[in-house]
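Note to self: the last two entries modelled the partners one at a time, which told us nothing about the interface. This time every component goes in together.
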Amino acid sequence: MAVDYLYPDYEIIRNYDRCIACRVCERQCANEAHEYLEDSNKLVSDDAKCVNCHRCVSLCPTRALKIVKTDHTFKENVNWSGKSIKEIYKQANSGGVLLSSMGNPENYPVYFDKILLNASQVTNPPIDPLREPMETKVFLGAKKVKIERDENGRLKKNLTPHVVLSMPIMFSAMSYGSISYNAHESLARAATEMGILYNTGEGGLHEDFYKYGPNTIVQVASGRFGVHKEYLNSAAAIEIKMGQGAKPGIGGHLPGKKIVGDISKTRMIPEGSDAISPAPHHDIYSIEDLRQLVYSLKEATGYTKPVIVKIAAVHNVSAIASGIARSGADIISIDGFRGGTGAAPTRIRDNVGIPIELALASVDKRLRDEGIRDNVSIVVGGSIRSSADIVKAVALGADCVYIGTAALLALGCHLCRTCQTGKCNWGIATQRADLVKRLNPNMGYKRLVNLLTAWQHEIKEMMGGMGINSIESLKGNRLMLRGVGLNEKELEILGIKYAGE
Amino acid sequence: MKRVYVNEKWCLGCHLCEYYCAFASSNEKDMVKALKDSKINPKIKIEETDGINFAVSCRHCNVPLCVKGCITGALTKKDDGVVTIDKDRCIGCYTCILSCPFGAVSPSSEGVIQKCELCIKTNNGTPQCVAGCPNSAIVFEERGE
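The predicted structure of the combined assembly is written out below.
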């Protein structure tokens, strides 16, 4: 047997004084980290198999289990961290590209945490959202620059199609295939109940979910999986995916073994064939080409639905956004480098792209400077972690945010970052029937509704504190923001003042 | 009446209901003290085969065959519909075990029989299998007779 250079990252600590040997840990671990020893009526664990997803910890009825980070260490130094050493061992072992899941976990600045919100005192009274009306409704789509009236002086109804949301939040694109049927159902039902939208991702739309169409964004990505006329027409909006924050410049690859049954049917590809999304759209090499796809989709849906163009936040994001705003798209969606994924090459995820806060601020400014900000709405995603992040994003110029990881956390995800194995113990990022059933959508959708309800309350509280009673008045209102621990350049790009100024 | 229903679609076969049932019958405050180093004999039991799991417990039938067959009157259907057992009257003849079509009556460790009584004697009628089910596969609800 070859020498194993790697020591497990986590250790499973079992308190034998509390363990009643009910075996729920053993039964619930898809990684088979726990084993029951019949002769001694005892459970033992293999740390090497543990991914730290907490399924066993959460279900253990006597709280006999906990997972700790191992204190085993390499002789590491500042330059050669344990992580770097470990990754070299892994690659020397496998010869392969390292794969990772979820968003960029590295130690880059989180600008949302360096921005503080304002509140009213004395001269401009705050508003109590429990006593006074407070509006969080959002309209996404191109806005008319001026009001036009007909010969009778009546308002001309010449507004292009819009999306109406009860609050500035949507569920970001996660395909059926990358996440389970039950996860999709939970998202669709929660979006419907709360009056927001969820996004199919590029895996097509399962026939059972057409009924949630008015609360669905259908995606058209480079693989064009599952795209047909009914699909486009079933939705409230159509999104062209040009890029993804977790892996800008990279396509996707759903392995053939996951293309089974309904997934094959929904994606419209044969069972067992790999679903490969190319890195580029092979028919888009310019803004003019993008414009053709935007109008093809509008034509196919009779100009009844807004078209979103989603890009990853990269270096020239503001110039790219300026092009998109002229392409006929109604909404631009920007995905920051912390954005999640079911699987991405580790080096890409951890080293490519820029922070969403900077991308958003520069895009908003560029579009305003060019006088085309009203052509489009801006949606941002890529690690929106709380309602405070949403308020800050809106004040930086966003019309709305996408939440993906936060929504999955509400469904039970524990950010163990092993989606790529397909053995999600929480029934989210898996297609194994016995695991999928662990996510009961009746419970899942309720948890999502709870999260959104809580965040809406918090958004209202924060707005009220600032003396603002409508989310529209907060949009691009950078005077409500102050920076801490930021340098001149960062403040300039964010377009905000330093705290105390 | 409100009954315990199990939805096979959401039952994970985790067996937690069995342990919460055994704990509920133990009259202990701490689950560890109640169940440590003991073999449980719960009134709800998971039946499983080929990836199908289903928790089985008393249906509290409208016409309960166990009550009909009981030779000492130990089993009765109360006014609220709950089929209960009077352990002092039970002689352990097991006629009820033979007559229950669901296999929901079983011998108890005290030599008489045991069956689900919807936790009316232990937890004020809040079935603990329902409270402890992690996937809402077991529900306690009114579905008509």
